[in-house]
Amino acid sequence: DNGTSSWEFLLLGMGNVPSLQAPLFLLLLMIYLLTVVGNILIIVLVVADRHLHTPMYFFLGNLSSLETCYSSTILPRLLASFLTGDRTISAQGCIAQVHFFGSFAVSECYLLAMMSYDRYLAICQPLLYASLMTWKVSLQLAAASWLGGFLSRTVVT
């Protein structure tokens, strides 16, 4: 009776070419750092400057937060894999990664739809825009996009 079982996956996507490990690691690290620093800079500017306290910039700040979370679900694990050479991921880790990646992807789609609705109101209903797109409505739309993304993936995962 052979009772061995494995609860992890072997990641084969990047191959084992030693000459490419360092350049790929540096390239992915630079992309990740630029993404995170750029998004944090946008968030800080939106929060710090009073002139940017409008629904459009509120949604852009949310999109930057979402993009930071989105890129942080897979790239750190990939970078750690390059450093340690460990090409395995546990089943629970894989499920968590897929769940969060999918949640952030769906939330991004919902948030982009909310942002387009905001711009539609600003362009097509300029006289009613201030009464239609209040801070309360903006907050509800952003919260609905985040919550909708996570709930839709929770049902699937």
Automatic annotation (TrEMBL):
The molecular function terms of the Gene Ontology recorded here are: G protein-coupled receptor activity
Query: Gene3D superfamilies recorded for this chain?
Result: Rhodopsin 7-helix transmembrane proteins
Annotated compartments: Cell membrane
* Segments traversing the membrane: 20-48
| Keyword Transmembrane helix in record | yes
Q: Which UniProt keywords apply?
A: Cell membrane, G-protein coupled receptor, Membrane, Olfaction, Receptor, Sensory transduction, Transducer, Transmembrane, Transmembrane helix
Q: Name one GO biological process term.
A: sensory perception of smell
Give the chief site where it resides.
Answer: membrane
Note the InterPro entries from the entry.
Answer: GPCR_Rhodpsn (IPR000276), GPCR_Rhodpsn_7TM (IPR017452), Olfactory_GPCR (IPR050516)
Q: Which SUPFAM superfamilies match?
A: Family A G protein-coupled receptor-like
What are its GO cellular component terms?
plasma membrane
Q: Name one Pfam family in it.
A: 7tm_1
- Output the superkingdom of the source species: Eukaryota
Where in the numbering of this chain does the G-protein coupled receptors family 1 profile domain appear?
38-157
Kindly give the membrane topology term recorded for this protein. Answer: Multi-pass membrane protein
Q: Which family does it belong to?
A: Belongs to the G-protein coupled receptor 1 family.
Its name, as the record gives it, is: OR5BL protein
Q: State the taxonomy lineage.
A: Eukaryota, Metazoa, Chordata, Craniata, Vertebrata
Q: What is the primary gene name for this protein?
A: Or5b21_0
